[in-house]
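Q: Predict the assembly, please.
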Amino acid sequence: MTATLGRFLVDLSLLVATSGAMVGFAAGFRPSASGARLARRFAYAFSALMTAANLVMFYALLTHDFSVSYVAQVGSRSLPTWVTIASLWSSLEGSILFWGLVMSIYIFVATFATRRDHPEYMPFAIGVWLACAAFFAFLIAGPAQPFLTIASPLADGPGPNPLLQNHILMAVHPPFLYLGFVGMTIPFGLACAALLTGRLGHAFLRPLRTWLLLPWTFLTVAIMLGGWWSYEVLGWGGYWAWDPVENASFLPWLTATAALHSAIVMERKGTLKGWTVTLVLSTFLLTIFGTFLTRSGVFNSVHSFTQSSIGPTILVFLAIALVFSVVLLATRIDRLTAEGEITAGASRETVFLANNLLFVVFTFTVLIGTVFPLVVEATKGTQMSVGRPYFDKMAVPIGLALLFLMGVGPALPWGRATGEQMRRSLLPPAIGGALAAAIGWATGVRHGWTLLTLAFGGYTLWITVREIWLPVRQRMRARGEGVGEAIVASQIHRGRRRLAAYIVHAAAVIVIVSIAVSSTMGKVSEVRLNQGQTTKIGGYELKFIGAEERNEPHRISTAARFEVRREGKLVRVMEPAMNLYQGQREPIGTPDVMTTLTHDLYLSVMSIDAAAQVVGLHSMVNPMVGWIWIAVGFMGLGGLMALIPSRRRPVTDRDDLMTELRPIESAPVTSLVEEGG
Amino acid sequence: MNRRVLLVGLAITIPAIILFVVSLGRDPHKVRSPLVGRVAPDFTLLEAGSGAVVRLSSLRGKPVVLNFWATWCVPCFAEHGVLTEASRQLGPNVQFLGVVYDDKEEKILQFLKENGSAYPTLNDGGGKTAIAYGVYGVPETFFIDPSGKIVAKYEGPLTPQLLDSNLQKAAGRS
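A: Predicted assembly structure:
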């Protein structure tokens, strides 16, 4: 019964999305108020149906209705409730259904928020969104159907993959990732609409940026949460492995970040329109590419779902989207005429250009490293993999250059900087760089790249803080305001977006520096200990007190207890464990991590024998890792802060029309403006 | 129409699409064993329970099915029935050998008592044989021809069909 209802809702949502896509395109090509309204209604209907289908699945999971195939596959009565909820995205079919939910929320909010604006663009955008929605509804209705009826259901199920039950972050990382990935559909639709109408004016840039920034923020946090999960759960002590699927989440992040920057140049200078649109399209295509990698079974990783039949379907969608995007770009890009130009010379816009080129080079570098094993296997038949050394070797210099530009860009004015201006703004921050490198040297950093990272980080941080401080000081001098008042007035009320950007930059500096320090300055030791024996690492003394087996409803956990002492004083008792989940053959380690401001003490069990009281211990001291999570949190906050609309008069469509060179078919446009949803 | 954009775009996307289509059938879990086509590494192991000595090289002259498994491995459980049944049917024409990896003698004997046995089960305590064969997960099965050469390797639980087709190779009738 539940399964039938679910299938019905999914089928209906497929029908609605398909029809809505056609209505959207029709209303885009022959603008009419009623057509646009109808397209919006289809969008709302799709959102309602897809959300309802997800609610049905949540209901089935929570009531342990094993007659629904997906529940039979991942449900279990012995699970804590949060695992049951998270199991919606723990396996292939459910994760695609959840994708549908996220998409329906995005489409609803984006349609609703723009219902009175941009009437010439929006039907196309809705058409593109619903076309993507139709594809995912098709996946759910067909190859990844989670609502099959099981005639004679069992009394209990196996539960989801134990790796996904091992940590609460697993309930958080996938939703954020989906919010990031799926959300890229919205700017994609808007960019397609700009190309289809052949116009990209000032007013339409706003929604494009906003809707790019929102999923970018989620994606940033999601990538960090994934790293954190890997660090806290997998037990190897790292957070990033250049795994193909990690790369798949990083690639759209790179192009989206580039697009956010080129959009600023577009806003200021009226150029780079085609380029920005290309980056937005690439971002979306890379999310689909990433989905293909995870769902097709082409790669083996902690993220890959078992070999599934949806690989070919996603590939067909990817191919259509790729060809559609290329043809659309080729036919329409010349219509997006620039209103200004970038002149050569030292200026903020040339730094933006360099930044964009670096991001694109970075994207290609990671992309090539990711697909290279496929190329080799397809052409030569031999198996190989591209490992960390390649990625590290390429990423470190590019990352450093980006770190440096992140300082230089904001320090330079728009237009053209004079020699005097450059000296004044670029030289003093070198003190910050020298200071950071000196602190590094004093605390024992000898690794060349790390010292360079510290120097660039200090340089950029100096500029970032100065850029935040300058308007405050100006206001204090000009108006005699106090510090607090000036900060509120100049940063929170007026320059919020600017402040948000600098918060993100400052946080990014900390992330890059922390990554450099933690990956080159750590200490590792592997020992085998009998009960009562001790080992030392990085100023800590670890005493193995004993191993203990605990039976929990869904797993048997064998924990090793350690007393952690520093300078003779007991700091903490830590318990890394080995868990054996029901119905699983291999045990899974759960490390125990003690985070301090400067470093983490990371204990993970390699082997454990509760009977003999012997433990194989992998212990690490990882400096600065905690800073990565904190700083990425700030990047997310900065992103959200930039999304809060400012009180300034919004740019209207009138400005938009005035900046356009192409004549507008004004009649339908004005009638649409008045219609207003 | 901007021809340059079209050409560059297609130059990137078309090869990518072709590459993905070609890669679609790829199974990342299948790692080709360098042992296939070479003489099987020899080993001497004790049979679980009886303690009888079994040496691989002494079994030349007939095809050998060498199955790595463990009692804690769920897929091995299903596969055990397939192998036992096949061994009973084929009788002395094909030598089946089970090598138990990372396990305890009592557990092995308990498993065999509950699920039956039709061929020698060897206890690879310390896992040296598994290492020599590059086993990275159980079950894994090696098919060895009468001359002692490995002709095929299969990862994952065997079905009667898979067992049959691989045995054809081992018997030199592929």
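Chain B touches chain A at residues 1-3, 5-6, 9-10, 13, 16-17, 19-24, 26-29, 31-32, 70, 72-74 (CB under 8 Å). Chain B has a mean pLDDT of 87.
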